[in-house]
């Protein structure tokens, strides 16, 4: 069966520009050391498949290429080499507030964001009441988005994608925003989405959240897949590497969103 999401030998380069001084011209420029935040390849040789109905997690330290990967899956960033295939309608929540306009009301932003997700006007109209009810923002739905807190924006964004007709959801970090009760409500909605054979690809700071929501996953470090398999094992081994590497190591530091 054709997978819902497929990446085959994916490469994406950084565009690095360095000033060349007189000394460098005369003596030759040193090759810069590659680090998590300054290297030639954002992603290199990344391959994986996600079956229909599977929830797939992506972990890794800051600068490992996680958000770059999701952006390529969404199509907002173009890969340099390799092949990407998504089989189904896609909805994404990759950045808090992306696709929204602060001067429009919550009501108007649902229509704006729905259109960005590829929904027809009739589809948004048909789903609007469910979106507003799920978000629990009925009392603020006709006020400008610039008056919303970050948690309210996250509620509106998640409510829109989870009630869209998408087959594949791409989610980056945003489930960490909001109170515990609403996060539990989001997790239940994701389980129901999967029960309908929906496919999830999720990046999260919260590795505990990933083990609760996801089945399989990968760990990225320095743009490469260093581990893959059942998410519980991937997360456990990532935590071990992070603990042993320390602040200066590839696996050290806080888990980030790139």
Quick tags:
3-stranded antiparallel β-sheet; alpha/beta; single chain; disordered C terminus; 258 residues
Description:
The chain is of the alpha/beta class and 258 residues long. It has helices at 22-27, 66-74, 106-116, 121-135, 150-162, 180-195, 207-213, 231-245; strands at 5-13, 41-50, 55-59, 81-86, 90-93, 168-172, 199-203, 216-221, 224-230. A six-stranded mixed sheet has the order 5-6-7-3-8-9, with helices on both faces. It has a three-stranded antiparallel sheet with strand order 2-1-4, with helices on one face. The protein is globular, with a radius of gyration of 20 Å. Residues 251-258 have low confidence and may be disordered.
> pLDDT under 50 segments (min length 5)?
251-258
Q: What is the assembly state of the chains in this entry?
A: single chain
Instruction: Output the number of helix runs.
Output: 8
- Alpha carbon gyration radius: 20 Å
Count of beta strands? 9
> What amount of the residues lies in strands?
15-25%
* Share of helical residues: 25-40%
Helices and strands: which structural class?
alpha/beta
- The averaged pLDDT comes out at 86
The coarse overall form would be globular
The largest sheet is: 6 strands, mixed
The ordered H/E elements are EHEEHEEHHHEHEHEEH
Distance between the termini: 31 Å
Strand neighbour order, sheet with most strands: 5-6-7-3-8-9
């Amino acid at each position: 069966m054709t997978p819902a999401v497929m990446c085959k030998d994916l490469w994406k380069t950084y565009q690095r520009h360095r000033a060349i001084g007189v000394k460098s011209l005369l003596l030759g420029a040193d090759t810069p050391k590659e680090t998590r935040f300054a290297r030639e390849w954002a992603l290199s040789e990344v391959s994986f498949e996600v079956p229909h109905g599977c929830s797939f997690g992506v972990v890794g330290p800051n600068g490992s290429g996680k958000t770059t990967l999701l952006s390529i899956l969404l199509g907002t960033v173009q890969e340099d080499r390799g092949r990407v295939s998504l089989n189904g309608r896609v909805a994404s929540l990759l950045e808090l507030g992306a696709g929204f306009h602060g001067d429009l009301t919550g009501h108007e932003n649902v229509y704006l964001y729905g259109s960005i997700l590829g929904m027809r006007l009739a589809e948004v109209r048909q789903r609007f009441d469910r979106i507003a009810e799920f978000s629990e923002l009925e009392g603020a739905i006709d006020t400008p988005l610039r008056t919303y807190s970050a948690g309210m924006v996250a509620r509106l964004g998640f409510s829109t994608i989870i009630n869209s007709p998408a087959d594949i959801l791409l989610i980056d970090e945003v489930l960490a925003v909001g109170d515990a009760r609403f996060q539990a409500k989001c997790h239940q909605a994701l389980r129901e989405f999967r029960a309908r054979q929906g496919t999830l690809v999720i990046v999260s700071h919260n590795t505990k959240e990933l083990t609760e929501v996801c089945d399989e996953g990968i760990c990225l470090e320095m743009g490469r897949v260093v581990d893959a398999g059942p998410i519980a094992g991937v997360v456990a081994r990532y935590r071990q590497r992070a603990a042993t590497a320390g602040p200066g190591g590839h696996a050290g530091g806080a888990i980030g969103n790139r």
